[in-house]
Specification:
Pfam families: DUF2124 (PF09897). A seven-stranded mixed sheet has the order 4-3-2-1-5-6-7, with helices on one face. It has 160 residues and is α/β, with parallel strands linked by helices. The chain has a single domain (9-151), classed as Response regulator (Rossmann fold, 3-Layer(aba) Sandwich). It has helices at residues 9-22, 42-51, 110-118, 133-136; strands at 31-36, 58-63, 71-76, 80-87, 92-98, 124-130, 147-151.
Length: 160
């Protein structure tokens, strides 16, 4: 895998994500399934979901790698995309692995994520992380990513 381009800011993360999905040969109703950590990954998943809200795809959130707990991601008028209480079955055409899954101390093992990915042969695998987390944790050698978006939150400035 080689570096395709280097962008900045939130649009730098969202635009290539949407472009990739637009060009992925997906059909109406195909599932994009995000696997991530509750709380920390969820806001980013909802942001990504908002970026592709006009694509005719079904969006699903899976906490960690627990597909039995999968929830639909739905638009909420005046708010954006939100994880709902609606349980859904998982049949991804695109799997989105969020970098929070690879962080130390997260209560999911890499092997559980590997098993979830392996359960859906033929699904494309996209990785979205911050601060080289997949690289630092050895996930680049573990997963056959079709696309990786690695964003930076640096520097963080605080005024008071």
């Amino acid at each position: 895998m080689e570096l395709k381009e280097q962008l900045t800011g939130v649009p730098g993360m969202l635009r290539p994500f949407k472009a990739y999905l637009r060009e992925a040969g997906l059909n109406e109703g195909d599932q994009v399934v995000y696997y991530g950590c509750p709380g920390t990954c969820t806001p980013f998943i909802e942001l990504l979901g908002f970026a592709i809200r006009d694509l005719p795809l079904e969006q699903v959130y899976v906490p960690y790698a627990d597909e039995a707990a999968a929830k639909a991601i739905r638009p909420v008028k005046g708010v954006g995309m939100q994880v709902s209480d609606d349980a859904v079955s998982v049949d991804p055409k695109v799997i989105i692995l969020m970098g929070g899954l690879s962080m130390p101390g997260v209560p999911v093992e890499k092997e559980a994520v590997q098993a979830a990915v392996a359960a859906h042969p033929g699904a494309k695998v996209v990785g979205i992380c911050f601060m080289q987390m997949f690289e630092k944790m050895g996930w680049l050698d573990t997963f056959d990513f079709d696309l990786i978006i690695d964003a930076a939150i640096d520097p963080v400035k605080v005024w008071q």
